[in-house]
Amino acid sequence: MVDALQIIIYVLVYKLKIYILNNIRKATMLSSKSDKQLGKVATAKALAEQEDALGGMLKNKQEEPVDPFKEKKEWFQNFYAEMFGLENVDFSDTVVPEQSGGKDTIPLFIPKWITAKKLIEGAKNKKVDFLIEIALGINLERIESQNISRPYAVWVTNSEDPDFKISGQRRIPGDREIMSIEERIIFGVFKFQKGHRYIDVQNPTLTSAYTYVGNSKTARAVITRYIKNGLRVDTQDISLIGFAREVFGRMPHKSK
Questions:
Q1: What is the pTM of this model?
Q2: Where are the alpha helices (DSSP H) in the chain?
Q3: Within 10 A of 256 (CB to CB), how many other CB atoms are there?
Q4: Do residue 121 and residue 226 come from a single domain?
């Protein structure tokens, strides 16, 4: 489909040719043969230069890479502003890894420096319908999770339930990774907004995060539990079985 810039360039080329033809006609009216020749040469040179310039503009426009995720990136930027009050999220330069994990996976875009605390407080301040409860004794400041220095994208399974094959481990052997607490909150709000209000109903969902409750020095796994119209952030013994959601294609990144 021809875009607006291409149309403008075509119109400019057409007008330029008309202008040059008029100059050629004027040149033929010059009194001397040499003047006529000079006029034609000057006109031809101007035509070549202008056509080269306009042709270059059109070529550069046509060669600009098209980002197949442009609309999704813009959607997620608006999503973070509306649901969490994060106004300066920018995914324009975020590289999306090659799709993996099967045809039922979808891309999830995650802002830089995001934490569970920022997400939960942001959703509360925006008064969104999605409920996020915090179990007694959990200090959000003490949740040890990822804190990534740049935006990134991962592929997640677009299902109503976690993967029952993944259980009992925060880091899965074979380079398999499970959702962080931040990714799980974002995915929950995303699914809720899309009309899927009841996910992970049957079992708690294990995340890759851990924390310490009260004065205990023993780490506990951070999990999420289903509640009506939302989720509850809770903990469990780090050695207990818990079903998880796997993420795919997480690219190397720097942590804080």
A1: 0.72
A2: 4-28, 33-63, 70-84, 116-126, 181-193
A3: 9
A4: yes
| Strand 246-248, strand 176-178: pairing | antiparallel
What total number of domains does the chain contain?
A: 2
CA 177 from chain centre, in angstroms, equals 19
Residue 253 lies in a domain: no
Q: Tell me if 229 sits within 8 A of 192, measured CB to CB.
A: yes
**Both 52 and 135 in a single domain?**
no
Asked if residue 54 and residue 178 are part of one domain, the reply reads: no
In a domain, 229, yes or no: yes
Q: Are 174 and 180 in contact (CB under 8 A)?
A: no
Predicted confidence pLDDT, tens digits, the chain (256 residues) = 456 656 666 666 666 666 666 666 665 555 455 555 555 556 566 666 666 666 666 655 556 678 899 999 999 999 999 999 999 999 999 999 999 888 889 999 999 999 999 999 999 998 888 899 999 889 888 888 877 889 999 999 988 888 887 776 555 545 568 899 999 999 999 998 888 777 888 888 999 898 998 888 888 999 999 998 899 999 998 888 888 898 888 765 544 4
If residue 236 lies in a helix (H) or strand (E), which one and from where to where?
strand 230-237
Are both 53 and 149 inside the same structural domain?
A: no
By residue range, what is the domain housing residue 24? Answer: 4-63
Do residue 188 and residue 75 come from a single domain? yes
| Residue 106 CB neighbour total at 10 angstroms | 14
Q: What is the 3-state secondary structure (H, E, C) of 51-81?
A: HHHHHHHHHHHHHCCCCCCHHHHHHHHHHHH
